[in-house]
Amino acid sequence: MTLTDEIQRRRTFAIISHPDAGKTTLTEKLLLFGGAIHVAGAVKSNKIKKTATSDWMEIEKQRGISVATSVMAFDYRDYHINILDTPGHQDFAEDTFRTLTAVDSVIIVIDAAKGVETQTRRLMEVCRMRKTPVMVFVNKMDREGKDPFDLLDEVEAELGIHVRPLSWPINMGQRFKGVYNIFQQTLDLYTPNKQTISESIKFADVNDPQITELIGENDADKLRMDLDLIEGVYNPFSTDDYLRGDLAPVFFGSALNTFGVKELLECFVQIAPSPRPVDTLERRVDPLEEKFTGFCFKIHANMDPNHRSCIAFFKICSGKFERNEYYRHVRKEQQMRFSAPTCFMAQKKETIDEAYAGDIVGLPDTGNFKIGDTLTSGEVLHFKGLPSFSPEMFKYIENADPMKQKQLDKGVNQLMDEGVAQLFTNQLTGRKIVGTVGQLQFEVIQYRLEHEYQAKCRWEPISLYKACWIEAVKEEGAKEPSPEAKAEYEMFKKRKAQYMAFDKEGRDVFLADSGYVLSMAQQDYQHIRFHFTSEF
Ligand code: G4P
Fold this sequence. Notes:
binds guanosine-5',3'-tetraphosphate
């Protein structure tokens, strides 16, 4: 197979959902289809138990397994599929957001009874920002849920994306009879069954009288009316709109009953993008270029203090990666080679000899890599699109052992490089503030500082709403902001000095203490833009 063929058959995506919507179940069913696993329950048993509430040490024990499931690769027909896990539950962290920077498309799972929930909304913001193509799977149709049309309205309104159903459910809950696949004009009759897959029956169109025989007159009439309505209300499906991130095809089914999953997968491999070009500060990198490039989007630390090693996860953006080849670590200006790169086939971690654009490789690391680092075959490139996202929770970090200030500083710096959380330094007082997206990260940081760096920290409360990266507005085409905008920017910084901080890169960040304060600032300072991510 040529390099181009290898790259074009790759599909790298993430499944995102609110906890409990069915992400694990769907992942497992996709692996079953790929023949990567043979029994249902295999992935499930790796899942971080929900009962482990906030006991993160318990979570960590299980995380040893979860590293193996952070990427699941398998072949389906001629395609090579990489599913990236986006941790949910308590270990929801900035990691989750950043994982989305390494995928080429996304499948969103929605619980038919619950509709769009918070975590999905937050993750979708990242997809929208990056214009990631999105597909929606409405799960748990075997239970009573919301009306499908209402659900579609909800997805459009809450996730800010146009939708187009490509399959349509016939009833739900106890009365659930199956789905009509609009994409292929087939009917799948539902039988509750976790292992076998229903056979699709092909029709010329939905008016075929056999459909009436199969599902009864009432349901057949209702199906035809619904489909008429769909044709009238939604624009025809366009792959281009999907690829631009403007339109999400929607499927209905029940992951637990392996129902509707095959249709989703079939459509996915046909329309989901192969690796997409990625922008660097210097130029756009095309995946089909022969020379290897890649960036680090995640660092998974080994929590065992006796073996301080990590795995740095690299997304390959172009060409082919080879074991024992020399590559350039751009930030460190150093050549490096890797004798034990790993890839993740289903649940197994295996050493590999080569990997292609679209793939994720895990590189064993002892502190050489930071999030955002670039490896290349020689060229100096800096990948864009790995922004920091505004944290949601903030605390002052204080030294609890004055003899260990150095260790604390070193530990905090390294943990921030790993992307565990973000550090802000108040411009007025110099006090350090740690921002996270989940409560658990504070516990993780404290524990790791103590066990890996022999430093002790203490948390003190601070009430903040968001961190905003700010800039003085530039007129269109202008290189610099106008003197007026610059003056306003300086004035803002002076007036809000108490709330101004530097991020780790030394950029100005406004720490808004409430939504009200932020919207007032946006109103009052017309020459300043407030961003919730560090890249704009
Ligand atoms: P998550 O990864 O998004 O958190 O969700 P997960 O797949 O773990 O599913 C959450 C719960 O929903 C599980 O039940 C799972 O069995 C159930 N589920 C998933 N898909 C369907 C579906 O299509 N229909 C129905 N009725 N239920 C579904 P649980 O009781 O929490 O776990 P378990 O005891 O079944 O393992």
